[in-house]
Amino acid sequence: MSTKMSTTMSHGFKSSKQDFTFGPWKVTAARTHIMKSKDIERLAEEMHMPSLPEMLFGDNVLRILHSDGYGIEFNAIDALKRVNNMQDSVKVACAQEWQESRADSEHSKEVVKRYDWTYTTDYRGTLLGEDLKIKVTPTAERIDMEKLKAREQIMFFEDVLLFEDELHDHGVSMISVKIRVMPTSFFLLLRFFLRVDGVLIRINDTRLYHEAGKNYMLREFSTRESRISELQHVPPALYTDPNEIAQYLPLKLTECEKLEFPEKETEAETTESSQQ
């Protein structure tokens, strides 16, 4: 197992790239500066969105790559590509409610219809691999959260922010991904957190877990959401802390998947299939 780290200074911002190798896996965590406004404008045009989050870390990435070339990564651009695909009636209702409460807002009603200004995304990661690909299937198997509570040595930890926006000072929309690697497993949490002040709090979580020796990872996606009017019993100080507020938000959706690793053909099998 080894860790490699490199840092470079750019515009006064320290960029870092860490590589951590364990078994056949390499975890890469890259953190660098916010995308320049001209690049954001160009990207917004390509994505047919009137605007993108004000803090967009287009080059930040957390990647888990197997030595055979397959794996999964988490990046901001792919997370944003999932924004328009969310069919969510609550969103429109909220937008109108938010609109009415902010009559002086610079958002016009037309803009609200044209894109999801909350940047809600159901992104669960980007699968990597050309010849060998991970196969995704629904499963009843769950991540053993109790096992994860066991005090095991953490050999590598990284937290990478992908984007954040303060919704014109009316809340926050952000997505970040963190990973911890233990001697026999790794656990990753990708969290999208949305708070529209006075209206709604929503958390979309993707948890990814792999135990050494198994030929798959488990991925669980969940959505929790509540209108703020239904959180009267919760101290408002918790509204800004995703870790604290999560337990008070009703669970709206859970999807569990098994990410099965491809098997690399041996030379004998390759020869055999070419002779047939």
UniProtKB/TrEMBL annotation:
GO aspect biological process, one term: TOR signaling
Species classification: Eukaryota, Metazoa, Chordata, Craniata, Vertebrata
Alphabetical list of Pfam families matching this protein: TIP41
Name of encoding gene: tiprl
Record-level GO cellular component terms: cytosol
Cleavable signal peptide: none
Domain of life: Eukaryota
Biological source species: Chanos chanos (Milkfish)
Alphabetized InterPro entries for the sequence: Phosphatase_reg/MetRdx (IPR051330), TIP41-like (IPR007303)
PANTHER family documented for this protein: GAF/PUTATIVE CYTOSKELETAL PROTEIN, TIP41-LIKE PROTEIN
Record-given protein name: TIP41-like protein
Family affiliation: Belongs to the TIP41 family.
